[in-house]
Amino acid sequence: MAPIRIVGTGSYVPPNVLTNDEIAKRVDTSDEWIMKRTGIRERRIADPEQAVSDLAKEASMKALEAANMAPEELDMIILATITPDTSCPAAANWLQAKLGATNAVSYDLTAACSGFIFGLSNAEQYLKNGQYDNALVVASEVISRTVNWGDRGSCILWGDASGAAIVKKSDTGAEILSTHIHSDGSAGENLLLPGGGSATTPICQESLEKGLHALRMVDANKTFKVAVKRFAEACEEAAASNGFSVSDVDLIIPHQANLRIINALAGRLKVPTEKVFVNIEKYGNSSAATVPLALDQAVRSGQIQPGDNIILAAFGGGLTWASAFVRWE
Ligand code: COA
């Protein structure tokens, strides 16, 4: 069987920029505090008429173009998101229709910030077992619509974005050597988006007053520490399962949640910060979309070169954590 490879990547961010200074006009915070505690300077916000599938379409079209494929050739669409256009149908189905990917089965995948890597792992299994030959794995979030813009402890973190990859059985492209995915449902309360779920629907005056429609973080400091630990474990697992040590890896592309988390990860792994991709200053945390957005930027900027061994790693609500080990060719 031909190896399973990433044969094209794409990404999209909405044009509207929201700076820290603008947030500081709404809540008691400052550019200096946000930069120091998170490394975020600005983030993108989707236009009111843009839903998750619209952002996903832009990223997907670029990935298809890079893979030299037409939408009709797609066998599968896996869309990772926690902010779908609608609870039913799946955002992936809206995307399928917008792309005209008439031959693809489509579904959403919910694994919060780890969603893209969970999606890669899903695609890898279907391709390995021979049921399909290719998949579009795309992550897209319009998380700005779920943010409580009055909560200075969390509203500073988030941004909207989308990123995509075409995965295919192929003799050329970047080989996916492994994926690993993990969950811990007992800590799910720490990062919660109740709105739209059966525990809160139908939304009523009481649930609105309680703010149940908005994203909420509990014990963010605790999540910070768990994130560093799980991130490091994910990177070590990815490297070890391919006979490498993390220091042999050319580039780590981590989920972008907080620059301090990323720097702590590099310190724990004893990896120089130049080997860790960072773009959080411009985009903040776009949940599942950070990893494919960063991957596409690293590919298109030439930061990834043929022969490089790459680890994609994520940690997110759920809790979830995941890794993929990819050899670029
Ligand atoms: N501006 C100014 N002050 C703020 C603030 C803001 N935007 N947000 C919080 N503060 C205040 C707090 O009220 C607190 O004040 P106090 O000491 O008087 O009580 C102080 O700053 C420190 O707050 P703390 O929560 O300890 O800050 P922190 O260094 O932990 O940074 C986060 C907060 C949220 C940036 C950080 O904990 C984080 O990134 N956590 C993980 C986030 C997460 O869960 N991401 C999703 C999973 S991937």
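^ coenzyme A complex. The chain has ten helices and 13 strands. Residues 178-327 form a domain with the Peroxisomal Thiolase; Chain A, domain 1 fold (CATH 3.40.47.10).
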